[in-house]
Amino acid sequence: IQGGFLTVVVLGASGDLAKKKTFPALFNLFKQGFLPSDSVQIIGYARSKLSNDDLRQKIVGYLKAEKNALQDGESVTKKFLNLISYVSGAYDSKEGFVQLDKAIQSVESVENEGPDSSRSTRRLFYLALPPSVYPQVSKMVHENCMNKHGWTRVIVEKPFGKDLSSAEELSKQLGELFTEDQLYRIDHYLGKEIVQNLLVMRFANRFFIPIWNRDNISNVQIVFRENFGTEGRGGYFDEYGIIRDIIQNHLLQVLCLVAMEKPVSVNPEDIRDEKVKVLKAVEPIRDEDVVIGQYEGYKDDPTVPDDSNTPTFATVVLRINNERWDGVPFIIKAGKALDGRKAEIRVQFKDVPGDIFKCNKKGRNEFVMRLQPSEAMYMKLTVKQPGLEMGGTQSELDLSYGERYKDVVIPEAYERLLLDTIRGDQQHFVRRDELKVAWEIFTPLLHRIECGKIKCLTYPQGSRGPPEADALAQRAGYNRTYGY
Ligand code: BG6
User: Taking Cα atoms as reference points, which of 87, 97, 147 lies closest to residue 122?
Assistant: First the structure.
């Protein structure tokens, strides 16, 4: 990557997110030559008193677990670890951040032939931290660590607030410190291969352009299932719940890409303008369009209160009031401790008019995009039953990435998004106004759940979730002749 010496500062370096996602993503970029040793350094910052080696030890296990390790993995890992150093300090300590700035300056000056060098430098701050400390940490970064010889960029992780007013408050605080082009709000679903493919698939194929609308599409399902529960994150999770954890961000972003109009160009601002427009057309959510659930045993976690009404499962039907989508329900479903791990988009088409082959009762046309596991896109359609008979049967046109793109290594979401940040491409990041509308959509519902107006149904671990959710999807028009 061109553009001067780069320092990546990982704030919250000893935390879970940094160990599991941030450092491994940096490692993958390093392995592929995107972070050359002579022009990059990585500094971890956290409260724990650690030496450089302690931090390296903490992350090495996660690096080794990375897929696609190179043949000479050991020495590559070593070289990567050598780029990492550590500064310890509190998140509200001026002294800590002054130290951090000194550490950055010193790596910049060693690598950059003196602090007065005319070569520009780049500083990327990754806030792998709980949102409660964002305001103080960003203030500290702003007061003590801004780059005077090039750009400063800041990556923030969700949750961006808990509802509209807290999100607006956070946006205001961050907005006073950094400009919008310095802020990168990560939603890692935007870094997934199939999600990134959505716009290309929709707008670069003549097939899809004329049929992608209310005349042909009956309903759209966007589904996220996990086959494990909150796994020790109960305390965090109980404050947020599945709607804030998955739906208001990840699945809503996917909905935007499925439903938005064609942007005038692939410029990030043009794309995000269209996303905001479609979000603004989402109607207020009605109680009868919601089923929430909590898996049995969720409250066994000692950090979860006994009277918790926090959903670990939700099905919400969203309705978009515009010319393209009026009358087409978007069934959004997410749950933990379900019967499998999968994320997919199912676009279900209407029945065939004048059904001479009696194919409608066998199942509808569907276009399915599987985000994970094993990326795939396939079309469910009716073909002649091969052989002597003339009847129709259901089959698939299948593009499974593992088969078709055998030699391509699909990058991890965080890896792509980090590279985008370094390159200054905000297309796959959430803009402030997008975030605001996303909260406008869900805040009234979240408040109704919090005051107990809508109650969680319980469901057994390893199940499909409450049967009422399937009934809701069916009421909304989803025909489950086959499929999930
Ligand atoms: C995170 C949520 O944002 O996404 C987790 O906080 C969830 O609860 C995770 O498990 C799912 O991400 P992925 O990429 O595994 O689908």
Answer: 147
Distance of CA 461 to the CA centre of its chain: 24
Instruction: Looking at the CA of residue 224, tell me the nearest atom of ligand 1.
Output: 16
Q: Respond yes or no: is residue 142 known to be catalytic.
A: no
Q: What is the ipTM of this complex?
A: 0.96
Work out the number of other CB atoms within 10 angstroms of the CB of residue 199.
Answer: 18
* Whole-number Å distance between alpha carbons of 99 and 108: 14
Token code pair at residue 116: 């007065």
Q: Contact 313/332 with Cβ under 8 angstroms?
A: no
Report the predicted TM-score, pTM, of the whole model to 2 decimal places. 0.94
Q: Ligand 1: which residue has its CA nearest to atom 10?
A: 226
pLDDT digits (tens, 9 = 90+) for 52-88: 999 999 999 888 766 554 445 568 999 999 999 999 9
Among residues 142, 149, 188, 250, which one is catalytic? 250
Residues 6+ away with beta carbon under 8 Å from 124: 6, 7, 8, 9, 152, 153, 154, 155, 421, 422
Q: What is the DSSP string of 69-111?
A: --TTHHHHHHHHHTTEEEEE--TT-HHHHHHHHHHHHHHHHHH
pLDDT (mean) for 132-146? 96
What confidence score (pLDDT) does residue 323 get? Answer: 98
